[in-house]
Specification:
It is a single chain. By secondary structure, this protein is α/β, with parallel strands linked by helices. The longest helix is centred in the first third of the chain and has 15 residues. Helix content is about 25%, strand content about 30%. It is elongated and about 65 Å long. It binds adenosine-5'-diphosphate and magnesium ion. Magnesium ion binds next to helix 6.
């Protein structure tokens, strides 16, 4: 079984050896990775500053990484697993442990840099919830922001959450709401519309697919889209939402798996009844679990203000 330990400078020799073995086994890159230039001195200094992780398989060290703070997130450097230990979930265990550690430290996400020449590596990160936020020469920067979960005891709670979120929103933002019929997506949007100070009552957009609520003041408009009745991404695109996206806060109900293509930066908000989605057990007054999943650099360091 895999065991992941948080380590400091005392583990520099083992981490250096793992870096050498893991990075040395890879096909050479041009320009070469700086990982192979690490020394006991540099690794001791890096681990001494922010620590790292060592993964052990049956008591044998097989993988490591070094932490580095990057703004509100934690950067992962020198992430490597021995070739002999690959395919056994060690890398995944390291990512999980890194997330736990970063959460403990009060950080809101993980960052990592990969090489464009290594698509399988990029795929690994994407599979673990990282998104490609920037390409810079041979480097791809990826970020994973952590989900936050809250419980809303009643509709007022869900709307209060929307009211807390509203001051953080600005023109161009995209919110994607998912949840069964009656989960509370429109209820949330009503709270948001009130807090944003927009014109018109926010209702289920039953006869229109999208409704624009202009701001009564200086703030952004609210574009409220019901993607439930849409056939797919192509149709959503046909709505020409792009024109208003830049000037409005756009809320898409039931857009999961559909509206993501509209923007990398987005807030995905999933609302579920605490009793689950079984219609026999479901009660209108059940508390709701709200999972907020921020995606993209726009949201880095933002939800801390909630
Ligand atoms: P959706 O848009 O997801 O289909 P609605 O917002 O139209 O759902 O309806 C949600 C219903 O559930 C409303 O009648 C609302 O009063 C009720 N409700 C009960 N508890 C909650 C809660 N915690 N959050 C949101 N809505 C709730
Ligand atoms: Mg609705």
């Amino acid at each position: 079984m895999t065991l992941v330990r948080v380590v400091g400078a005392e583990s520099a020799p083992v981490v250096l050896e793992l870096i050498g073995a893991a990075f040395g086994a890879r096909a050479p890159l041009d320009p070469p990775t700086a990982a192979l230039s690490e020394t006991l001195e540099t690794v001791t200094a890096e681990l001494g500053a922010y620590g790292g992780l060592v993964a052990e398989l049956d008591g044998r060290p097989v993988g490591a990484l070094i932490f580095e703070p990057v703004g509100t997130a934690v950067g992962l450097r020198r992430f490597g697993v021995l070739p002999s230990a690959q395919g056994r979930g060690v890398a995944a265990a390291l990512v999980d442990a890194a997330e736990s550690r970063a959460r403990e430290l009060g950080c809101d996400g993980l960052r990592v840099t990969a090489r464009v020449e290594l698509p399988a590596t990029i795929e690994f990160w994407e599979h673990h919830g990282f998104v490609d936020v920037e390409r810079e020469g041979v480097n791809v920067h990826l970020v994973k922001l952590f989900e936050q979960t809250l419980t809303a005891a009643g509709p007022e709670d869900t709307q209060r959450f929307a009211e807390r979120l509203a001051p953080l929103l600005r023109a161009g933002d995209l919110l994607i709401l998912t949840g069964d019929l009656g989960a509370g997506k429109t209820t949330f949007t009503q709270g948001l519309g009130r807090a944003l100070g927009v014109r018109g009552d926010v209702t289920s957009p039953t006869f229109v697919i999208a409704r624009v609520h202009p701001s009564l003041g200086e703030g952004p408009a609210l574009v409220h889209v019901d993607a439930y009745r849409l056939g797919g991404y192509a149709e959503l695109d046909d709505l020409d939402l792009d024109t208003s996206l830049d000037d409005a806060v756009t809320v898409v109900e039931w857009g999961g798996g559909l509206a993501e293509g509209l923007a990398t930066d987005r807030l995905e908000i999933a609302i579920t009844r605490s009793s689950g989605s079984n219609p026999v057990l479901a009660e209108d007054h059940d508390p709701r679990h709200i999972v907020v999943h921020p995606v993209g650099l726009r949201w880095l360091g933002e939800l801390e203000k909630l």
